[in-house]
Each structure stands twice: as C-alpha cells, then as structure tokens.
TrEMBL record:
This is acetate--CoA ligase. Its EC number is 6.2.1.1. Keywords: Acetylation, ATP-binding, Ligase, Nucleotide-binding. GO terms for biological process: acetyl-CoA biosynthetic process.
Length: 571
C-alpha cells in the first residue's frame, strides 16, 4: 500500500507552509484574537459564549444542537448565555466564590452546558465527572477536590455518597426530587426565579478553570488542573487542526467527563462560534450516521474505538446516508490503526486525521494537519509552538527512528498548572525541561511521530484511561479476593481490555459464579469501564521484594513474552 495519503479534497486548509509557520511562531501572536488583549478582562465563558451573544449577527445563531433518543433541542448563543447567567446567580447566592470547586455529575444535556458556563462565570473551577461512575469513584473525586457544590440528576444521586464529604455544602438536582432538606437545590425552580443578568467575574489568565481527574499507574486518580490561559491553544488548534469555519456544524463525540469533551466539545468550537452538535445516550452505527446526516455535520472529532465499530459494520452502511456535508474527520485517544485510515478513504472519501495529546496537556500537541501529508499509523507532527522529541531515561534526546519517551518542551498555554493537592506528583512529570508523557514513540527522519505504547501500566480500554491501582484496590475489597494484579490485554476492537489476576482468600473456590460476582462488584462499585473482562485465579501474584505488584511480569505471562529481568521478584 502507498503509505502517503494525499488530501482527497481541496479545502480551506491552513498551515500550508508548516515549516515556515513553526519557525516564526510565538503564542503571543494569537493574543490578538481575544478581547482581553485590549480590555484586560479575561474569562473563558466570555470568549466562548457571551462575546457571541453580544454580537448582533451571532446572537441568534444556534450554538448547541442537543439530541438524545428522547429529546432534541436547539439553543442560540444568546439563550445559552442568558441561561448560564441565571445559573451563575444561583451559585453566587449560595456563596460560591472564585476558586471554589463545583462538580457536575450528570449526562450530557443543555443543562450541563448551562451549568458549566455558570460555574466559569463565577470564576469557580468546574469538575465534570463521567455519568458512568459509581459511588467510590464519585467519592474519591469529591473528597480530593473538596468540592463545595455538586450538580446531578435524581437518577445519579443514588451514587452520590452522603457521608464523609464535609466540604460539600449543596447538591443541585436537575429534575424532580422530593426532599426539602436545605442541602438540595431545585435546578428548574431556581433557574426560573434567577435573574438572567450577571456581571461576569473577570479573572487572570493563570486562574483555575477546570479540574479533570485522570488515572496513572499508581495511586488514586489525580486532579489535573487547567487555567483560562488554555483558551489560546484551544482557539489555535480549532483553526489549524479542526479547521473550523464560520458556517461549520461540528460534532465532537466525547463526553465532557473526559478532557476531549471539554477542550474540543466546548472550548474550541465555541471560541470559534460554530454550531456544536451534542449527542447524548449510547450510540449504534445507525445513530452515528443519522446524526451526521440529519444535522449536516461538516467537521467530526471522534475516537478509534468508535471508528473500529463502524468499520466492523461495513462500508455499505455508509452509502445509505447522505454525508455530503462532512468534510473533515479527526480521531483521538488511542492509536489510530492504518487500516481505519484506509477504510475512511474508501467509506467517506475523506482522510481521518489522528491527533495526540493527554488530559495533562490540555490541548492537541502532535497532529495530522489538514495541510500535511498523512502517514497512516503516525500521529503526525507537533503543532506550531510545540517542540516534541524522544528522550531516553536520563532525559537525553535520541536520534530519529529510536524508540524512547515522548517528551514536550515545557511551557505551552494549555498545559496543566498543577496536580490538585499533589505537588510532588506534578514535579514527577518533568525532566531536564521536558514534560515526559509516559508514552513510548519514535520520530522518523521527516519528523512524523509514531506511537508505540505506554511506558507505565496505564490501561487504555476503548479510549478510556484506567489506572490498574484503582481496579486492584476495588478487587481486594471483595470478600473472596486476597490479592490482585491488573493489566491491559490487547484486543482488536477495544484496543485493550482489563484483565485481573487474583488470589482467593481461604475458604473460597473458583467458580464461574464467583468470578462473575467479583466482576459485578467492580462494575457497580467503581464503574463499568473499569470492570475486568477477564479474571484469572492464581496461587500467588508476583511481587517485588518491596511488595509492588509486578504487572509487567503478569503481562509477559499473558502475552507469552520473555519475562526479562526478574531479579527483584520476591522469592
Ligand atoms: C493515549 C486523551 C495513540 C496515550 C486526550 C496518551 C493516544 C493517553 C492518542 C492520554 C493517539 C491519546 N495515538 N495514543 N492519537 N491520543 N493517546 O489523558 O497513551 O485520556 O498518553 O487523554 O491516551 O489519555 P487521556
């Protein structure tokens, strides 16, 4: 196969002269696109929403098209701005102040976006949580962040812990809830009563905006803290990578509980003032194509796991729909298989552009730009303003084609500014002025980066990042489980699945029922995507002499690979 895919459609592609732009680029050049550059008044909610609502030509434009199987709603910039003013007033009345953490635990909905902007307008820090989380996952995050207010629905309230959350003052309920204790705030009632005028809190570029919890290989999930300054990069990548134009209808399939669903499901599209499609609920391939067709989506940002599902349903399906509006497709979250890129060319007559970044990086860093040649299987090249390289374990740069740690030169606008409550964890990301990603990759002679895998034990299942420690901790809470070691096992559609090795406590015997019970225990205690699809019972779990589970050895066993250096193995 010819690995050089040439653009199949001429568009308004930016960055034609990539090398030249990189050479001369400075992030400061982007400031002129923001009103604060002249007014000194900063707030993401203003740039992404109120600015359009104040613009007589934009205010009645559709900002949000929301749909799920039961509901369809179109909301203009003006209405979203007014509604979020109301919500900001509610938060202010209940004493929310700049820097306070306000969490959202609810499905995608117009109310979600209203509340989200309301939080930013009072200069509080928003913490969106996946609706799939179970009680333990919710508790860990609310405890660590010391959240003051939580916004949720009556259905999800069942999974909100009612104890040991001393900082949580109020719970806003979006929906019917019969409990008049003053701990609860009735969203619809108070929204009706609140004023739709609000004086937005101006902040500094470096003030906090967002807290996204994500998993590492050790410890509980950590709070990755982002600031308003990130908007510069959201805007820039919205132009260069998403290639957004005034008349685009854009659809990002990611949930806002994940960084893609905020950086590219909220900020980038609305900084550009385009119509943003949000689809709630679970989707079948028919739903995907229907959504693209019905709303005439032109720019689509999705994930390899979804694309692989579409591939498995065949190319013929695509021809049943009129997707003539679609002009640009991107992918993120896991390696994008070259076969999927090739399939995309046949099925959509379009290239699929891989993009690489992380919760910690806040925005895209290494991408396939619309203006550049695509090498299927490669993540592409760093955007202007980003210097990427491959380093060894001592922090020395490696020559082309050598595998090592993918690292980025410190200091870009969307970079996390801290790990909440954990300065040493934050420090551990950096070496010799490089941010070390934890991914292994190499760079070819032409500067394209090729992803090889994770260097730590973090699991990527269907694009969701899962920390083995969190799953192991839950497993050993089950009465039958003595020890547990958890790994990611390669899987053709899901990327990886979670496999657990366990030892049983005395008096328990391995039966299919017991294994199912253990699985369900994790699923209902933590979350569905964290539940191991495979569980294998062992006599012992390999550990180092210091008691650390040797997940790497478990993985080698599983894959039938050489076991390497086992000198630290406990005897
Ligand atoms: C993986 C996602 C290969 C990678 C925005 C990274 C990818 C982790 C790609 C971050 C890609 C993300 N190709 N792998 N294009 N994009 N990853 O924080 O291992 O949920 O470190 O953020 O996903 O996952 P996170």
């Amino acid at each position: 196969m010819d690995m050089k895919v040439v653009p199949v459609r001429e568009g308004n592609y930016n960055l034609k002269d990539y090398e030249k732009l990189r050479e001369n680029f400075s992030w400061d050049d982007m400031k002129k696109y923001f009103s604060w550059d002249t007014t000194g008044k900063v707030n993401m909610a203003y740039e992404a929403l109120d600015r359009h609502a104040e613009d007589s030509e934009k205010k009645n434009k559709i900002a949000l098209i929301y749909s799920d199987p039961y509901r369809e709603e179109k909301v203009t910039f003006k209405d979203l701005s007014k509604a979020s003013n109301r919500f900001a007033n509610i938060l202010k009345d209940y004493g929310v102040e700049k820097g306070d953490r306000v969490f959202l635990f609810m499905p995608r909905s117009p109310e979600f976006y209203t509340a989200f902007f309301g939080i930013l307008k009072v200069a509080a820090v928003a913490g969106p949580l996946f609706e799939a989380f179970m009680e333990q996952a919710v508790r860990d995050r609310l405890q660590d962040s010391e959240a003051k207010i939580l916004i949720t629905t009556p259905e999800l309230l069942k999974r909100v812990p009612q104890e040991n959350l001393p900082n949580l003052e109020k719970i806003v309920i979006v929906g019917d809830h019969i409990d008049d204790s003053d701990k609860y705030i009735d969203y619809y009632k108070e929204m009706e009563e609140a004023s739709d005028e609000f004086d937005i809190e101006w902040v500094d570029l470096e003030d906090g905006m967002l807290l996204h919890y994500t998993s590492g290989s050790t410890g509980k999930p950590k709070g990755v803290y982002h600031v308003h300054h990130a908007m510069i990069q959201h805007y820039a990548t919205g132009e260069w990578v998403l290639d957004l134009k005034e008349d685009d209808t854009y659809w990002c399939t990611a949930d806002p509980g994940w960084v893609t669903g905020t950086s590219y499901g909220i900020f980038a599209p609305w900084l550009h003032g385009v119509t943003n499609v949000v689809r709630g609920g679970r989707f079948t391939p028919e739903d995907w194509y229907n959504t693209l067709e019905k709303y005439e989506v032109s720019v689509w940002y999705t994930a390899p796991t979804a694309l692989r599902l579409l591939v498995s349903h065949g190319e013929e399906k695509v021809s049943n729909y009129n997707l003539s509006s679609l002009r640009h497709i991107m992918s993120v979250g896991e390696p994008l298989n070259p076969e999927v890129v090739t399939w995309g060319l046949k099925a959509f007559n379009l290239r699929i552009h891989d993009t690489w970044w992380m919760t910690e990086t806040g925005a895209q860093l290494i991408v396939n730009l619309p203006s550049l040649e695509i090498r299927p299987g490669s993540m592409g090249k760093p955007i202007p303003g980003i210097e990427a390289t491959i380093i060894d374990n001592e922090g020395n740069e490696l020559p082309p084609n050598q595998m090592g740690n993918l690292a980025i030169k410190e200091g870009w606008p969307a970079m996390m500014r801290k790990i909440w409550n954990n300065p040493s964890k934050y420090e551990s990301y950096f070496m010799n002025g490089w941010y070390v990603s934890g991914d292994s990759a190499y760079k070819d002679e032409d500067g394209y980066f090729w992803f090889q895998g994770r260097l730590d034990d973090v699991i990527n299942t269907s694009g969701e990042r899962v920390g083995p420690f969190e799953v192991e901790s839950k497993l050993i809470e089950h009465k039958a489980v003595a020890e547990a070691g958890v790994i990611g096992k390669p899987h053709p559609e899901r990327g990886e699945i979670i496999k657990a090795f366990i030892t049983l406590n005395e008096g328990y015997e391995e039966t299919p029922e017991l294994l199912e019970d253990i699985r369900t225990f994790v699923k209902t205690g933590l979350s569905a995507h964290a539940a191991p699809r495979e569980i294998e019972v062992k006599d012992s779990i390999p550990k180092t002499r210091s008691g650390k589970i040797m997940r790497r050895l478990l993985k080698s066993w599983e894959l039938g690979l050489p076991t390497g250096d086992t000198s630290t193995l406990e005897k």
